Amino acid sequence: MNSFQFQNPTRILFGKGMLEQLGSSISAYGTNVLLVYGGGSIKATGLYDRILKQLQQIGAAVSELPGVEPNPRVSTVRKGIAICREQKIDFILAVGGGSVIDAAKAIAVGVPYEGDVWDFFMRKAAIQGALPLGSVLTLSATGSEMNGSSVITNWEENLKKAIGSIHAYPKFSILDPELTYTVPANQTVNGIVDTMSHVFEQYFSQTADTPLQERLCESILQTVVENGEKAIHTPDDYAARANLMLSATYALNGGMISVGMQNDWATHMIEHEVSAIYDIAHGEGLAILFPNWMRYVYRERIDRFVQFAVRVWHIDPTGKSEEEIALAGIQATRDYFTKIGAPSRLSDRNIDAKEVGRMAKETVRFGPVGSFKKLHEDDVRSILELSL
Amino acid sequence: MNSFQFQNPTRILFGKGMLEQLGSSISAYGTNVLLVYGGGSIKATGLYDRILKQLQQIGAAVSELPGVEPNPRVSTVRKGIAICREQKIDFILAVGGGSVIDAAKAIAVGVPYEGDVWDFFMRKAAIQGALPLGSVLTLSATGSEMNGSSVITNWEENLKKAIGSIHAYPKFSILDPELTYTVPANQTVNGIVDTMSHVFEQYFSQTADTPLQERLCESILQTVVENGEKAIHTPDDYAARANLMLSATYALNGGMISVGMQNDWATHMIEHEVSAIYDIAHGEGLAILFPNWMRYVYRERIDRFVQFAVRVWHIDPTGKSEEEIALAGIQATRDYFTKIGAPSRLSDRNIDAKEVGRMAKETVRFGPVGSFKKLHEDDVRSILELSL
């Protein structure tokens, strides 16, 4: 186990009816609120009205930034920063999934910074502070509700980049599984893939002597696998939705499940370059890429892949070689993603070989990626070609 | 899963050499420090000198409260509160195990309160604030380094009672596994039993639909069982000490592993009454009582005990009844405690039946205890009698 520091100050309010605590949760920070949301589904479901009622009860003045994209754009973030400055906003409320929360975080850190917010994503400046923000989660996937990370796309430059800061943790997040009943099946699938992928990035590690962390990772994977299909087939299954929601939050709440482990994140970086050009859903890109990353790297530490196969997928090791067990676990991952309806090839989303070179080059812009196996441009190109 | 709120603001600095961060971690809060510690082992190991050096580097004024007892006493807490007021202390640093940290927390919440600190423990007053505190952990056991709980003994009244408050969370805790190399074997054993018992109190729950939380609990139990004997037999096994330390912290860091689950805590309340009269180590009391609590209650939800037996103790269920599997898991718990050198009967610590009635009565002073099975005075007496 490596040395580490860990802190996660976000307060979680979890369960049906927790939205009633929204007003009082905000009023400790301010009453001049920027409401950030996405494509308008929160109006169709009535959530928007419930939120406004809570804000009215604390006498809040409300500005709005609607229309945050599934891959949120820096242009939208800049718009939000301008509103915050003009309206002297003192609290940002994100209502939506990871994209909306990520946009709200980028706005929050951008407001007190004199330069352009994209500087943070290009490592040209360090985050020094942020407006306080909170979230009401409507989609289980990214864990953004309980961490300090934000991923933003710059379409002018076809770049999708991430930041992370203790200042960007939400002060609170309201997690009501009932709010995810209306999530379309394909987005539920993407959320499942995203949650599992976040665990993969932490679990497949070269760090030795981390038995507790490995088991915490396996606990989340097993819980997601057991509950995923239930939520897809019975969207209002409270227990399944609650189990997925808690799993997604714990999968990436500041690294709690992988403290002291070197993380990988290469597959996410490759996926970011795919969706920066083709604008496919993050979960779709991960479902396509991850099993191919696994096939490309598993020999680097086959014992971890054997453990994964046996503990998560219950592969019977009797009479099989390590190689066979590891590959059976990877195949089980591929099969599960396919079974729940996720794509398995880039061609399933009409992506051909044309931009593979560009995507591989951009993935390693800041140097080789990953740590389970360090990937150079050629490696990334190989994984993308395996995925065509 | 029940609805819940969760927040844990403590910053953890984990790993060898993290003590070098002590000075800078304190200076954000103040430089007039009360140093709280126990029986003086920190002087023998040289830790005391290393701490003082860190405090000198930030120019701190240092007052001291040495001699905190293994079952820390309210008289000692009152002494600490008096020092804080006289010396206008602005930060409390606890150096030791759970007892020292618990005492520091009680001092921290007692300073801003006008009445006597024992009022909090008797539910006569609510905690409204606290002096900031931090800890340097020297013993893996209680999780006090990352939660808001404190257990204090009042010898005048033979009472041992607990408080919990968001104000009592340490601002930071330094967890260096190397600092536990010198812990005597019997205290390592007590720490193992305490950690496992904390998980038991959360895991044996009547709450339905909590598959992730159950697995998180099992992850800790398995990790402790695998690493316990290594640490006992090879005190300077860094990996074993680190795995035990992280397990103990996660086992009780504000309930992270059991969010949305009703907890039990009856066995702890019974043990508190035993050690309030006989002053035995908390871990010894738990090792004696817990398997007997299990035998007394397992029929209330036999499926959880079956799962415990199979997943934690790897009991082969083939050809066995649920009853047999559950009892085999309980016996495995008893056997493990015995194997690592923990006592199994109250008579092992020279405790006879004389005070059983008084302990049973005091356990239920505030009403029946526990939730897996609600225990009345008669039930508590039966468990104590099983333990003689």
Task: Characterise this structure.
The structure is a homodimer of 388-residue chains. With 388 residues, the first copy, chain A, is an alpha/beta fold. Chain A has two domains: 11-179, 3-Layer(aba) Sandwich (Rossmann fold); 184-386, Dehydroquinate synthase-like - alpha domain (Dehydroquinate synthase-like, alpha domain, Up-down Bundle), CATH 1.20.1090. In chain A, 48% of the residues lie in helices and 12% in strands. Chain A contains 15 helices and eight strands. In chain A, the strands form two sheets. Chain A has a six-stranded parallel sheet with strand order 1-8-5-4-2-3, with helices on both faces. In chain A, strands 6-7 form a two-stranded antiparallel sheet. The longest helix of chain A is centred in the middle third of the chain and has 23 residues, at 211-233. The first copy, chain A, is globular, with a radius of gyration of 20 Å. The first copy, chain A, starts with a strand and ends with a helix. The model of chain A has no long low-confidence stretch (mean pLDDT 97). At the A-B interface, strand 1, helix 8 and helix 9 of A face strand 1, helix 8 and helix 9 of B. Strand 1 (4-14) of chain A pairs antiparallel with strand 1 of chain B.
